[in-house]
Amino acid sequence: MAGLNRAYINDVDNLIASTPLDAVLNRFGQPLAEHSSGEHRMTCPFNESCAETSYGQLTVNLDDPARLIFCHSCRIRGNLLTLLHGLEYHRPPQGGRLRGDEFKAAVATLRLIASQGTSESATAPTPSSPAEHDAADTASPPMNIPLRRHPKEAARKIEDLYADLISDHAEMSPNAASYFRERPWLTPEVCKEWGVGYLPRNGRSLLRGWIVYTQRNQRGDVVSYSGRDPNYDEKSAKWIRDGLPEGKKPNKHRYVSGYQRGLELYGQQSVRLEQERIRRSLQTLGLIVVEGANDVIRLDGLDVAAVGLCSNRATDEQILKIVRFSREAAQSRVVLLPDCDREGEEGFRELLWQLNEAQLDVRLGWSSAMFDRAFAGRQPEQITAEEWSEKLLPSLEQTR
Protein backbone atom coordinates (compact mmCIF):
# COMPACT_ATOMS: atom_id res chain seq x y z
CA MET A 1 0.00 0.00 0.00
CA ALA A 2 1.49 3.31 -1.13
CA GLY A 3 3.00 5.46 1.60
CA LEU A 4 2.98 2.71 4.22
CA ASN A 5 6.13 0.74 5.03
CA ARG A 6 6.29 -3.01 5.42
CA ALA A 7 6.86 -2.85 9.21
CA TYR A 8 3.65 -0.84 9.59
CA ILE A 9 1.71 -3.29 7.40
CA ASN A 10 3.03 -6.24 9.40
CA ASP A 11 1.97 -4.50 12.61
CA VAL A 12 -1.53 -3.93 11.21
CA ASP A 13 -1.76 -7.56 10.07
CA ASN A 14 -0.92 -8.69 13.61
CA LEU A 15 -3.46 -6.25 15.03
CA ILE A 16 -6.21 -7.66 12.80
CA ALA A 17 -5.31 -11.24 13.63
CA SER A 18 -5.27 -10.59 17.39
CA THR A 19 -8.53 -8.60 17.62
CA PRO A 20 -11.61 -10.82 18.05
CA LEU A 21 -14.41 -10.25 15.58
CA ASP A 22 -16.84 -10.11 18.52
CA ALA A 23 -15.04 -7.06 19.91
CA VAL A 24 -15.72 -5.18 16.66
CA LEU A 25 -19.31 -6.41 16.45
CA ASN A 26 -19.98 -5.39 20.06
CA ARG A 27 -18.53 -1.94 19.44
CA PHE A 28 -21.24 -1.30 16.85
CA GLY A 29 -24.13 -3.06 18.58
CA GLN A 30 -24.15 -6.04 16.20
CA PRO A 31 -25.12 -9.62 17.09
CA LEU A 32 -22.12 -11.73 18.08
CA ALA A 33 -20.64 -14.26 15.70
CA GLU A 34 -21.84 -17.84 15.56
CA HIS A 35 -18.63 -19.80 16.12
CA SER A 36 -20.13 -23.20 15.41
CA SER A 37 -19.02 -22.94 11.78
CA GLY A 38 -16.12 -21.36 9.96
CA GLU A 39 -18.02 -18.25 8.89
CA HIS A 40 -20.26 -15.57 10.34
CA ARG A 41 -23.17 -14.18 8.34
CA MET A 42 -24.61 -10.72 8.94
CA THR A 43 -26.55 -7.93 7.26
CA CYS A 44 -24.38 -5.98 4.82
CA PRO A 45 -23.35 -2.66 6.44
CA PHE A 46 -22.15 -1.06 3.19
CA ASN A 47 -25.38 -0.82 1.21
CA GLU A 48 -28.81 -0.62 2.82
CA SER A 49 -30.43 -2.02 -0.34
CA CYS A 50 -28.58 -5.33 0.11
CA ALA A 51 -30.95 -6.30 2.93
CA GLU A 52 -33.85 -6.14 0.47
CA THR A 53 -32.44 -8.91 -1.72
CA SER A 54 -32.27 -12.64 -1.13
CA TYR A 55 -28.47 -12.45 -1.41
CA GLY A 56 -28.00 -9.62 1.08
CA GLN A 57 -25.94 -11.57 3.59
CA LEU A 58 -22.31 -10.63 4.15
CA THR A 59 -20.04 -13.45 5.25
CA VAL A 60 -16.93 -13.19 7.44
CA ASN A 61 -14.34 -15.98 7.24
CA LEU A 62 -13.61 -16.80 10.88
CA ASP A 63 -10.78 -19.17 10.06
CA ASP A 64 -8.76 -16.57 8.15
CA PRO A 65 -6.52 -14.32 10.34
CA ALA A 66 -7.56 -11.31 8.23
CA ARG A 67 -11.31 -12.06 8.73
CA LEU A 68 -11.93 -11.83 5.00
CA ILE A 69 -15.41 -10.59 4.10
CA PHE A 70 -17.65 -10.82 1.03
CA CYS A 71 -21.15 -9.51 0.35
CA HIS A 72 -23.15 -11.74 -1.96
CA SER A 73 -25.22 -8.80 -3.19
CA CYS A 74 -23.02 -5.70 -3.66
CA ARG A 75 -19.88 -7.88 -4.06
CA ILE A 76 -17.80 -5.86 -1.59
CA ARG A 77 -14.63 -7.69 -0.52
CA GLY A 78 -12.05 -6.91 2.14
CA ASN A 79 -10.92 -7.78 5.64
CA LEU A 80 -11.76 -6.85 9.23
CA LEU A 81 -10.70 -3.24 8.62
CA THR A 82 -13.05 -3.00 5.64
CA LEU A 83 -15.89 -4.37 7.75
CA LEU A 84 -15.11 -1.87 10.51
CA HIS A 85 -15.26 0.97 7.96
CA GLY A 86 -18.67 -0.22 6.77
CA LEU A 87 -20.05 -0.52 10.30
CA GLU A 88 -18.90 3.00 11.13
CA TYR A 89 -19.81 4.86 7.92
CA HIS A 90 -22.41 2.58 6.24
CA ARG A 91 -20.75 2.92 2.85
CA PRO A 92 -17.97 1.18 0.92
CA PRO A 93 -14.44 2.60 0.91
CA GLN A 94 -13.69 5.02 -1.91
CA GLY A 95 -12.69 3.03 -4.96
CA GLY A 96 -13.81 -0.19 -3.25
CA ARG A 97 -10.62 -0.61 -1.16
CA LEU A 98 -9.34 1.02 2.00
CA ARG A 99 -6.50 3.38 1.15
CA GLY A 100 -4.78 6.42 2.61
CA ASP A 101 -6.68 8.29 5.31
CA GLU A 102 -9.57 5.80 5.29
CA PHE A 103 -7.14 2.97 5.96
CA LYS A 104 -5.37 4.87 8.75
CA ALA A 105 -8.67 5.86 10.38
CA ALA A 106 -9.85 2.24 10.40
CA VAL A 107 -6.55 1.12 11.93
CA ALA A 108 -6.83 3.78 14.64
CA THR A 109 -10.36 2.66 15.51
CA LEU A 110 -9.31 -0.99 15.58
CA ARG A 111 -6.43 -0.13 17.93
CA LEU A 112 -8.90 1.60 20.24
CA ILE A 113 -11.22 -1.42 20.23
CA ALA A 114 -8.31 -3.78 20.89
CA SER A 115 -6.98 -1.64 23.76
CA GLN A 116 -10.38 -1.34 25.46
CA GLY A 117 -11.40 -4.95 24.93
CA THR A 118 -15.08 -5.78 24.65
CA SER A 119 -16.95 -2.97 26.38
CA GLU A 120 -20.13 -5.00 26.49
CA SER A 121 -20.25 -8.73 26.35
CA ALA A 122 -22.84 -11.44 26.05
CA THR A 123 -21.57 -12.82 29.34
CA ALA A 124 -20.40 -9.96 31.54
CA PRO A 125 -17.51 -10.86 33.88
CA THR A 126 -18.59 -11.21 37.48
CA PRO A 127 -16.99 -8.78 39.97
CA SER A 128 -15.44 -10.82 42.75
CA SER A 129 -16.47 -8.53 45.62
CA PRO A 130 -18.33 -5.33 46.52
CA ALA A 131 -14.95 -3.70 47.12
CA GLU A 132 -14.12 -4.16 43.45
CA HIS A 133 -17.35 -2.39 42.57
CA ASP A 134 -16.43 0.51 44.85
CA ALA A 135 -12.91 0.71 43.43
CA ALA A 136 -14.21 0.67 39.90
CA ASP A 137 -16.67 3.45 40.78
CA THR A 138 -13.74 5.77 41.47
CA ALA A 139 -12.09 5.09 38.12
CA SER A 140 -12.70 7.12 34.96
CA PRO A 141 -15.07 4.92 32.95
CA PRO A 142 -15.41 4.89 29.17
CA MET A 143 -18.30 7.01 27.92
CA ASN A 144 -20.52 7.71 24.95
CA ILE A 145 -19.97 11.21 23.60
CA PRO A 146 -23.12 13.40 23.50
CA LEU A 147 -24.08 13.94 19.88
CA ARG A 148 -24.15 17.72 20.21
CA ARG A 149 -20.39 17.76 20.77
CA HIS A 150 -19.47 14.66 18.78
CA PRO A 151 -16.29 15.05 16.67
CA LYS A 152 -18.14 13.80 13.58
CA GLU A 153 -20.37 16.29 11.81
CA ALA A 154 -22.80 13.57 10.69
CA ALA A 155 -23.40 12.64 14.34
CA ARG A 156 -23.92 16.27 15.39
CA LYS A 157 -26.50 16.73 12.65
CA ILE A 158 -28.83 14.09 14.08
CA GLU A 159 -28.64 15.28 17.69
CA ASP A 160 -32.22 16.57 17.35
CA LEU A 161 -33.51 13.65 15.27
CA TYR A 162 -36.16 13.07 17.95
CA ALA A 163 -37.93 16.18 16.62
CA ASP A 164 -38.54 14.37 13.31
CA LEU A 165 -40.25 11.37 14.88
CA ILE A 166 -44.01 11.09 14.37
CA SER A 167 -46.64 9.51 16.60
CA ASP A 168 -49.66 9.96 14.31
CA HIS A 169 -50.65 6.46 13.22
CA ALA A 170 -52.03 7.80 9.93
CA GLU A 171 -48.55 8.95 8.90
CA MET A 172 -46.82 5.64 9.66
CA SER A 173 -46.33 2.49 7.66
CA PRO A 174 -49.07 -0.08 8.36
CA ASN A 175 -46.81 -2.29 10.50
CA ALA A 176 -45.47 0.67 12.47
CA ALA A 177 -49.00 1.93 13.11
CA SER A 178 -50.00 -1.54 14.30
CA TYR A 179 -46.98 -1.58 16.65
CA PHE A 180 -48.18 1.59 18.38
CA ARG A 181 -51.84 0.57 18.46
CA GLU A 182 -50.84 -2.62 20.27
CA ARG A 183 -49.18 -0.40 22.89
CA PRO A 184 -51.84 2.20 23.73
CA TRP A 185 -49.73 3.52 26.58
CA LEU A 186 -47.31 4.89 23.93
CA THR A 187 -49.45 8.00 23.58
CA PRO A 188 -48.27 11.04 21.59
CA GLU A 189 -47.48 12.78 24.89
CA VAL A 190 -45.43 9.84 26.17
CA CYS A 191 -43.64 9.49 22.82
CA LYS A 192 -42.66 13.17 22.92
CA GLU A 193 -41.44 12.90 26.50
CA TRP A 194 -39.24 9.88 25.78
CA GLY A 195 -38.21 10.75 22.20
CA VAL A 196 -39.96 7.77 20.63
CA GLY A 197 -41.71 7.57 17.28
CA TYR A 198 -41.69 6.48 13.68
CA LEU A 199 -39.05 7.96 11.38
CA PRO A 200 -40.50 8.37 7.87
CA ARG A 201 -38.77 6.64 4.99
CA ASN A 202 -37.44 10.02 3.80
CA GLY A 203 -35.92 10.70 7.21
CA ARG A 204 -32.35 11.95 7.72
CA SER A 205 -30.93 8.75 9.19
CA LEU A 206 -30.31 5.12 8.30
CA LEU A 207 -33.07 4.41 10.83
CA ARG A 208 -35.65 5.79 8.39
CA GLY A 209 -38.66 3.53 8.15
CA TRP A 210 -37.97 2.21 11.66
CA ILE A 211 -39.46 2.88 15.09
CA VAL A 212 -36.85 5.01 16.83
CA TYR A 213 -35.91 5.43 20.50
CA THR A 214 -33.75 8.26 21.82
CA GLN A 215 -30.84 7.15 24.00
CA ARG A 216 -29.74 9.58 26.71
CA ASN A 217 -26.97 9.55 29.30
CA GLN A 218 -27.43 10.22 33.00
CA ARG A 219 -27.29 13.99 32.46
CA GLY A 220 -30.01 13.77 29.82
CA ASP A 221 -27.77 14.41 26.80
CA VAL A 222 -28.68 12.58 23.60
CA VAL A 223 -25.90 10.07 22.99
CA SER A 224 -27.51 7.96 20.26
CA TYR A 225 -30.65 6.49 18.76
CA SER A 226 -31.83 2.93 18.37
CA GLY A 227 -34.36 1.45 15.98
CA ARG A 228 -36.90 -1.34 16.14
CA ASP A 229 -37.81 -2.91 12.80
CA PRO A 230 -41.61 -2.62 12.42
CA ASN A 231 -41.46 -5.56 10.01
CA TYR A 232 -39.57 -7.81 12.42
CA ASP A 233 -42.51 -10.01 13.37
CA GLU A 234 -43.19 -10.87 9.72
CA LYS A 235 -39.50 -11.50 9.02
CA SER A 236 -39.14 -13.64 12.14
CA ALA A 237 -42.21 -15.72 11.25
CA LYS A 238 -40.79 -16.33 7.77
CA TRP A 239 -37.40 -17.28 9.25
CA ILE A 240 -39.14 -19.83 11.48
CA ARG A 241 -41.18 -21.20 8.56
CA ASP A 242 -37.97 -21.57 6.56
CA GLY A 243 -36.51 -23.83 9.23
CA LEU A 244 -34.38 -21.30 11.18
CA PRO A 245 -31.57 -21.07 8.59
CA GLU A 246 -28.26 -20.28 10.23
CA GLY A 247 -27.02 -16.72 9.76
CA LYS A 248 -30.36 -15.42 8.47
CA LYS A 249 -32.14 -14.61 11.71
CA PRO A 250 -33.56 -11.10 11.24
CA ASN A 251 -32.40 -8.27 13.49
CA LYS A 252 -35.07 -6.76 15.70
CA HIS A 253 -32.99 -3.78 16.80
CA ARG A 254 -30.43 -1.50 15.22
CA TYR A 255 -28.11 0.96 16.93
CA VAL A 256 -26.26 3.96 15.49
CA SER A 257 -22.69 2.93 14.77
CA GLY A 258 -20.15 3.72 17.48
CA TYR A 259 -22.70 3.73 20.30
CA GLN A 260 -21.72 1.49 23.20
CA ARG A 261 -25.09 0.51 24.64
CA GLY A 262 -23.48 -1.52 27.42
CA LEU A 263 -22.34 1.73 29.05
CA GLU A 264 -25.86 3.05 29.59
CA LEU A 265 -29.14 2.18 31.29
CA TYR A 266 -32.32 3.22 29.53
CA GLY A 267 -34.25 5.64 31.73
CA GLN A 268 -31.18 6.58 33.81
CA GLN A 269 -31.61 10.36 33.50
CA SER A 270 -31.09 12.09 36.86
CA VAL A 271 -33.97 14.51 36.23
CA ARG A 272 -36.32 11.53 35.87
CA LEU A 273 -35.04 9.57 38.88
CA GLU A 274 -35.48 12.70 40.99
CA GLN A 275 -39.19 13.10 40.19
CA GLU A 276 -41.30 12.77 43.33
CA ARG A 277 -43.40 9.87 42.02
CA ILE A 278 -40.26 7.98 40.95
CA ARG A 279 -38.54 8.69 44.26
CA ARG A 280 -41.54 7.23 46.11
CA SER A 281 -41.25 4.07 44.02
CA LEU A 282 -37.52 3.84 44.73
CA GLN A 283 -38.09 4.22 48.46
CA THR A 284 -41.03 1.81 48.58
CA LEU A 285 -39.95 -0.99 46.22
CA GLY A 286 -36.37 -0.32 45.16
CA LEU A 287 -34.87 0.02 41.70
CA ILE A 288 -36.64 -2.14 39.11
CA VAL A 289 -34.36 -3.59 36.42
CA VAL A 290 -35.86 -4.73 33.11
CA GLU A 291 -34.60 -5.58 29.64
CA GLY A 292 -36.03 -3.14 27.12
CA ALA A 293 -36.95 0.49 26.55
CA ASN A 294 -40.65 -0.32 26.22
CA ASP A 295 -40.55 -2.07 29.59
CA VAL A 296 -39.14 1.07 31.22
CA ILE A 297 -41.70 3.35 29.56
CA ARG A 298 -44.63 1.10 30.43
CA LEU A 299 -43.64 0.85 34.10
CA ASP A 300 -43.02 4.59 34.22
CA GLY A 301 -46.66 5.01 33.21
CA LEU A 302 -47.50 3.05 36.36
CA ASP A 303 -45.25 5.38 38.43
CA VAL A 304 -42.65 2.64 38.83
CA ALA A 305 -38.93 3.44 38.87
CA ALA A 306 -37.32 1.15 36.29
CA VAL A 307 -34.15 1.16 34.20
CA GLY A 308 -33.41 -1.05 31.20
CA LEU A 309 -30.36 -2.96 30.00
CA CYS A 310 -31.44 -2.98 26.32
CA SER A 311 -30.32 -6.60 26.52
CA ASN A 312 -31.01 -9.69 28.61
CA ARG A 313 -27.50 -9.60 30.09
CA ALA A 314 -25.82 -6.81 32.03
CA THR A 315 -22.33 -5.50 31.41
CA ASP A 316 -19.88 -4.60 34.17
CA GLU A 317 -20.58 -0.90 33.56
CA GLN A 318 -24.33 -1.39 33.89
CA ILE A 319 -23.89 -3.40 37.08
CA LEU A 320 -21.81 -0.58 38.58
CA LYS A 321 -24.59 1.89 37.77
CA ILE A 322 -27.29 -0.35 39.23
CA VAL A 323 -25.24 -0.74 42.41
CA ARG A 324 -24.66 3.01 42.66
CA PHE A 325 -28.26 4.03 41.89
CA SER A 326 -29.71 1.52 44.32
CA ARG A 327 -27.36 2.53 47.13
CA GLU A 328 -27.94 6.25 46.61
CA ALA A 329 -31.70 6.29 46.06
CA ALA A 330 -33.27 2.91 46.88
CA GLN A 331 -31.71 1.76 50.17
CA SER A 332 -29.65 -0.83 48.23
CA ARG A 333 -32.82 -2.60 47.05
CA VAL A 334 -33.29 -3.98 43.53
CA VAL A 335 -36.16 -5.87 41.90
CA LEU A 336 -35.53 -7.88 38.73
CA LEU A 337 -38.31 -8.18 36.13
CA PRO A 338 -36.86 -10.15 33.21
CA ASP A 339 -38.79 -11.23 30.14
CA CYS A 340 -40.50 -14.44 31.25
CA ASP A 341 -38.86 -16.64 28.63
CA ARG A 342 -35.77 -18.85 28.62
CA GLU A 343 -33.34 -16.19 27.34
CA GLY A 344 -34.53 -13.49 29.68
CA GLU A 345 -34.52 -15.64 32.78
CA GLU A 346 -31.10 -17.12 32.04
CA GLY A 347 -29.56 -13.66 31.63
CA PHE A 348 -31.17 -12.28 34.79
CA ARG A 349 -30.26 -15.36 36.80
CA GLU A 350 -26.63 -14.35 36.32
CA LEU A 351 -27.47 -10.74 37.21
CA LEU A 352 -29.22 -11.91 40.39
CA TRP A 353 -25.99 -13.62 41.47
CA GLN A 354 -23.82 -10.60 40.60
CA LEU A 355 -25.96 -8.09 42.50
CA ASN A 356 -26.11 -10.35 45.53
CA GLU A 357 -22.31 -10.49 45.49
CA ALA A 358 -22.40 -6.69 45.68
CA GLN A 359 -24.44 -7.18 48.90
CA LEU A 360 -27.61 -5.58 47.57
CA ASP A 361 -31.08 -6.60 48.69
CA VAL A 362 -32.24 -8.24 45.44
CA ARG A 363 -35.67 -9.69 44.73
CA LEU A 364 -37.11 -11.50 41.73
CA GLY A 365 -40.37 -9.74 40.93
CA TRP A 366 -41.81 -12.42 38.69
CA SER A 367 -40.87 -15.38 36.51
CA SER A 368 -42.48 -17.85 34.15
CA ALA A 369 -43.10 -20.21 37.10
CA MET A 370 -44.33 -17.72 39.71
CA PHE A 371 -47.98 -16.70 40.19
CA ASP A 372 -49.13 -20.12 38.91
CA ARG A 373 -47.40 -19.40 35.58
CA ALA A 374 -49.78 -16.51 34.93
CA PHE A 375 -46.98 -14.48 33.35
CA ALA A 376 -45.14 -17.20 31.37
CA GLY A 377 -43.96 -15.79 28.05
CA ARG A 378 -44.84 -12.23 29.07
CA GLN A 379 -42.73 -9.06 29.08
CA PRO A 380 -42.95 -6.13 31.53
CA GLU A 381 -44.32 -3.88 28.77
CA GLN A 382 -47.39 -6.14 28.67
CA ILE A 383 -48.31 -5.67 32.34
CA THR A 384 -51.78 -4.19 32.78
CA ALA A 385 -52.61 -1.67 35.48
CA GLU A 386 -54.81 -4.27 37.17
CA GLU A 387 -52.08 -6.94 37.13
CA TRP A 388 -49.65 -4.50 38.66
CA SER A 389 -51.93 -3.24 41.42
CA GLU A 390 -53.61 -6.55 42.25
CA LYS A 391 -50.80 -9.11 41.85
CA LEU A 392 -47.28 -7.79 41.39
CA LEU A 393 -47.29 -4.76 43.68
CA PRO A 394 -48.83 -6.56 46.69
CA SER A 395 -46.32 -9.38 46.27
CA LEU A 396 -43.39 -6.99 46.22
CA GLU A 397 -44.68 -5.02 49.20
CA GLN A 398 -45.00 -8.22 51.22
CA THR A 399 -41.34 -9.05 50.69
CA ARG A 400 -40.15 -5.63 51.91
Structure, described:
The chain is of the alpha/beta class. It is built from 16 helices and twelve strands. The strands form three sheets. It has a four-stranded antiparallel beta sheet. Strands 5-6-7-8 form a four-stranded antiparallel beta sheet. A four-stranded parallel beta sheet has the order 10-9-11-12, with helices on both faces.
List the helices and strands and how they pair.
Layout: H1 6-18, H2 21-27, E1 39-43, E2 57-61, E3 69-71, E4 77-78, H3 80-89, H4 100-116, H5 130-137, H6 153-157, H7 174-181, H8 188-194, E5 196-198, E6 211-216, E7 222-228, H9 232-241, E8 253-255, H10 270-273, H11 276-284, E9 287-290, H12 293-301, E10 306-308, H13 316-329, E11 333-336, H14 342-357, E12 361-364, H15 370-373, H16 385-398
Parallel strand pairs: 9-10, 9-11, 11-12
Antiparallel strand pairs: 1-2, 2-3, 3-4, 5-6, 6-7, 7-8
Helix pairs in contact: 1-4, 3-4
Based on the coordinates given, report the CATH architecture of the largest domain: 3-Layer(aba) Sandwich
Helix percent band = 25-40%
The assigned structural class equals alpha/beta
Uncertain residue ranges: 118-140
What's the SSE pattern?
A: HHEEEEHHHHHHEEEHEHHEHEHEHEHH
Task: Please give the radius of gyration in angstroms.
Answer: 22 Å
Question: Which topology of the largest domain does CATH recognise?
Answer: Dna Topoisomerase Vi A Subunit, Chain: A, domain 2
Query: pLDDT average, as an integer?
Result: 86
Q: Assign an overall shape.
A: globular
Number of distinct helices: 16
